[in-house]
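I hope you will forgive my troubling you with a question about protein structure. I am sending you one protein, given as its amino acid sequence and as whole-number tokens for its backbone shapes. Thank you for your consideration; the sequence and its tokens are set out here:
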Amino acid sequence: MAESSPRVAVVGGGPGGLTLARVLQTHGVDVTVFERDASPSARPPGGTLDLHPGTGQAALATAGLTEGFRALSRPEGEEVRVSGADGRVLVHHEPTPGVAARPEIDRGDLRSLLLDSLAAGTVRWGRALTGIAAAPGGRGRPVFAQGASEAPADDGVFDLVVGADGAWSKTRAHLGGAPPAFSGVHLVEARVEGQDTRAPAVAALVGDGSLYAFEDGLGIMAQRNTHGVVRVYFTLREPEDAELYTRGALDRPGTARAALRERFAGWSPDLLALLDLCGDSFVHRPLYTLPPGRTWQAHPGITLVGDAAHLMTPFAGMGANLAMLDGAELGLAVARQASVREAVERYERDAVPRGSRGIEASERGLAACMAPEAPASAVAYLSALA
């Protein structure tokens, strides 16, 4: 780009932020990633992702990481079963042998692939953003919480600050962005470990990929991860402040199991085996979303990618895919446009409507899967995605 030696700050070390950093570095652009976690292992990385050809996989191709992705991904993970509360399989999608359309990859493996591709010292850990101070020429100075694990706290002025800092983005708030709204749906995450030896019935139920069971505003979703782990998500349409989520019940395994068993009373014993055999850790993941369209004020030296820009529920499988595509396309725009301002404008021209389509698709998916008409409505929706 014509602008001499632009400095880019990426706030957030998730898939979108790391993809952006990788693309910038492949084009010789100076980039620093600031991540609030103290280290790569500070938190569990989460479940698996299916990367789509036109979004997540395209982003990795732009980043030059396709071969690394293929080595880590699991094409067999595309297998999907859909049922109702009785456990009877209504749809069974099996991937075509030798064709990897949307292979799964564990989030931890994807993060390691991206981190390992960056120059040493690119990511500065333990940096929790508190705000962005204005600097001349539309530039910004990120401000971090005192007591961060690295020094100095002042990392200087950047030509572009990119908020890749997730659902509750401080960068979006700095730009006057809208806060997320509760979707009406809660997830309670649990894990079944050693499934292939200790719980072969669970292995057979889930297969090599995922199981989705929905009926009358309830759902059980399970996905095979590596190392013999199955992640389970009990999905409930309840008020945001329902007692199960606000009074510590999920911190008490016996209470949590009893509450979930009560809610899923009458469901197939095969499906409830996922509750019986899971460990004692129950993690509450309420689902929030942003409205379609731009939800922040335009700024020539600040923009957003991924959940910070267009937060959506997981019911279309698009969130991480769009975040990575955002990162790749913003990186190319910075490298190719004559100025940071033009790069931001070029990127946002495509990213905002693309994110809006993702939000709308996710809303349709949530409505279909968590409807009184499920499983029929869920089958129709998920069959169209397979």
Residues 7-77+102-179+291-367 form a domain with the FAD/NAD(P)-binding domain fold (CATH 3.50.50.60).
